[in-house]
Fold each of these.
Amino acid sequence: MIEFSNVSYVYGKHTPFERAAVNNVSFKIEDGLVTGIIGHTGSGKSTVAQLMNALLTPTSGKVLLDGADINASREISYKTRFKVGIVFQYPEYQLFEETVEKDIAYGPTNMGLDETEIKRRVEMAADFVGISKEILKSSPFELSGGQKRRAAIAGVIAMEPKILVLDEPAAGLDPRGRSEILGRLTKYRQGSDKSIVIISHSMEDVAEYSDRILAMNDGGILCSGTPSEVFSHYDELCRSGLALPQITNIMNLVMKKCKERGIPFDNSAASFFTVDDAYKYLAQRLELKSEEGGNTVC
Amino acid sequence: MLKDITLGQYFPGNSVIHKLDPRIKIILTIFYIVIVFSAKSLASFGVVAILTLALIFVSKISFVTILKSLKPILFIMIFTAVMNIFWTSGENVLFSFWKITVYSEGVRFAILMVLRLVLLISGTFVILTYTTSPVALTDAIERLTKPLSKIGVPTHEFAMMMSIALRFIPTLIEETDKIMCAQKARGADFETGGLIHRAKALVPILIPLFISSFRRADELAAAMECRLYHGGDGRTRLKVLKLEARDYIVSLIFIAILAAVILVNTQFEALI
């Protein structure tokens, strides 16, 4: 579990460019869950990610991993990086080795593991993100954008971190690539106490895959909780430049129309944030209606 | 962190110095260097120091920033001071110890040399690098070197290359920072180990950096081509440089200071 207690971070202290990126923030990332962090551009999401594995040291406050301060000493900070794995935005730009296999092995090699263990982990990670044996032997620079992204993500997964932090893992991918990568990633925690943090400004992605959501605004926390809790703060989210998932918006409108016409609508619209959920509800309502012989569409 | 590098970085502002014509600033920088080198006594250094402090004050650049910019030359400063203290011979022995004799001339000379370095760096930085945007700077250089294009020197192309290079320094620093972070997150260690170990640790940074630089160059060339860029001849400019009253006034002040320094040199040398 990662715990932020009153953490602040200021960029460029004592220069004309001084800017507080994160401002007195406290929250917890629980084990075994997928936590989504949302926020507009410049709200401090990426800074929070870098604070999680001691790449940045907080200007004030503490970051605790399982109760221990991760910035207590350089050695502890260094070891934290293997426990909290971060996949940065556009991770494909970090690839550097001759073959994909060697690149994925970079992290585990730095951990000081022995060769058989490294080989096992490389194979596991490649298999996990869907990279075939042939691709493993080729140069990372020959791959397509989506494959590069997967190779880069595998490089972090091979370290088998307890907490996997992904900064915009699906940015710049086509819709199929998006859902495939996100779908595979959320499986990472299955059958273990590993947790995942997804940082994104795409409400749809976060809503579909997260158990908990943390909404950030101007370096502070706007609201947090389960997706339906967070999405019920409709006005606040909109004011900070975020939008609800499209489907939640539609369901909101449908609910409004229904109420105007006096048609019962028993769920709160904020609880629909995936197309599947909304479809199930509407389909069920339609069936009820046709059984009753009614002709209203709702 | 890499972001702390301030050498040769522009600090946006709205002061008189920021607003000066960049051509005048380049000329004044050369003039300033002449002033610093013509100062020969402590008194005349005082005059230059007043000028420099006034420049810093007017430009509203913080002293912390100036001190930071002096950090890289700290070694040179110490080296110069030590060399001058121990290897200058003169008439007045300050003290002697074992085989080393320190003359008061040496100490005086060391102080002057260090002062000269400090003033040189802080002054030129305040006049030029900290207060002039790279774009304005290359514009000015292009304009000042224009006579050379008459004899076939491609001045516009040089200026363009320079402005592109300058433009991409912050981008590359940011990129390097990002890649470093990403590799650190995979357990890269740049801070411990011997020289060879550290050099090897740089490979995971340099390769992605090279690749992204080439990609950027390609993209930039395509973007320029798309907007029909065609080099120097007949190209008009967005900002036409024009001298204003303040440019003349500041130039006059600099000339007056040079005169003052020369005067102080000859008149007050006996005093100090």
Amino acid sequence: MIDNLIEVKGVTKSFGSYLAVDNLSMVVRRGEIVVLLGQTGAGKSTVLNLIMGTTSPNSGSVRVAGFDPHDSFKALKGRLSVSFQTDRLLPWRTAVENAELGLLILGVSKPDARRRAKEWLARVRLDGADDKYVHELSGGMRQRVSLARALAIDPEIVFLDESFSQLDHVTSGTLRRDFYQIARELGKTCVLITHRIDDALEMADRAIVLSQPAKIALEVHIDDAARADPARIAELHAQIAAAMGGEESGS
Amino acid sequence: MSVADNMAVSVNSNPPPRAAAPADQLVKPLAAVVRPQRNPENRRDLFATAVVVIVMLIAMEITSRYVPDYIMPSPVTVWAAARELFFADPYHVGVTLIRLTAAVAVAMSLGVLIGLAMGTVRWIRPYLKAIILIDTGIPALSWMLIAVFWFKNPETRIFFILLVILLPFYALNVYEGVRALPKDLVDMIESFRPSRWQVLRYLILPHIVPYIFLTTKSVIGYAIRMVIFAELVASAVGIGARMNLAQSTFRIDQVLAWTFFLVILNLVLQAAVNAVEKVTLRWRAEAVVR
């Protein structure tokens, strides 16, 4: 079994004359929760796209579960999933139909997919909303459906691309804690992309701050002992904020 | 066993435990808030239509008293002609309706296929676009005359005329529908690494359904006018042919009666499409603009 689920080695990516990622190297180990932090335009989403295989690097290499995610795009079917900044639910499908989408794409039978989707909606505290259409759900509920859809396929790696950033503070905090509990319980490998330092301090095993263009400006390990120590948390907060150019947000 | 198959097995073998706190309390009040409400616009529209119809009937009645019958018969005369035609010639209404339905159904099917091909197959797009654009530039009258030269069978003529006239509407609107697919949704579904067929089935086809309804509602009135023209030029049966006969026998009351049937036919078909649309697109939130 591969221990380093994601390996990024000396990756550079540019779009025309714009350099988005500059010689970036990083590793994400199995079961780890890594938070990628950076200001807007730091290249966080480009890094995500490189790892997802939706774009390829100009130089360097990306390996996900031993595969090149771009060249072996289909080989990673069912092994990765993403929860995006906006819920990206299909409006013509109900909550449960949205949650089962990934399972159906994986070829799971309809009844089985429906059963699993319902279980996951209950797991993200949305039982009772199975048959609601998207316009009948609040923003927080939609994001919960989006999480259920991402987790229902039982992926090895879950990516959260600013998934909590468009929600109000209370909803965002609740959802973040729910997700953290599920991810820990199932031992999921997670990569969170965010500009909120709070997300990193609350959830990450490791926080990586990207400067612009994307290269590592700071890498800090955060454990439960640090989380329980307000002074240590304040120190980490200040370190990360400084690495982000003093423009921390979301506290 | 493929990776996907492996995943399918692992997915089924690991059901997550249920959460302790259901969200029922959160959901119920929300459902109450979004309960669909009757649109007061509908009642106002109905009232306005009734007023316009009554004013037109009064104008007809007044005019009929001052001009000869072959210029403007009274509404009572037209109503009598309509009753007579309805009981004597229902066959012609049926023929026109069948022609219309068949042509719209085939134009819809082919138009959707062409629109999808234009939207999803890059190399074929410019060729299909060129064909459709040339088609839209050819006047309906040209197609009618061409059909008379090309086909002997009246049914084939009428079907051909309607098909070539209606098909571009569906093709272009479906193509626009595919182009209007939100990139966010495309990226979302691509993140699951689906096959092309799965993208089509789960994303593109449901997305273009409103465009198909919109096109159908837009072309019904036009299609009725075209079928009448086509019947007038190319057939001995159907409402268009009967209107031709009524015109040649100076029966303006019958021309108006057939016109009355066509207006009713248009309203009935529009209502039918609206009803099907309402059920099919029940997922769509109905916005009422103040």
